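dude i think i finally got it to work??
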Amino acid sequence: MGMLNPLLVWTRLVRSVIQGVRHDPEFRAPAFAAFLLLVIALYFSTIVLTTVGLGDLAPTTALSKLFTIGYVLVGIGVILAFVDRLVREQRDVSGPLRTRLDARRETPRDE
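look at this
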């Protein structure tokens, strides 16, 4: 539950920024707009690649839908490759360590 609260706060913050950009023309200050677009892109990427799909942002044109399909397929593949690499590295590190710990357990101690 501890991780859920910051996630909800972040989601509400980004949603309010998106609504501000969409509905208030004065909200689109040039220097701030580039930062907001970056935040919105990061938010959309996170929502899509984690397969949460909140529905507040969605591609509307056929080209953007095709891009999103490709982005999801490539992005989830990259994430899976990264997780596979982490698991392999963990296994390579823990294998010799486990062998040494098992050998220590089996050797009799002098008491």
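The radius of gyration is 23 Å.
im so relieved honestly
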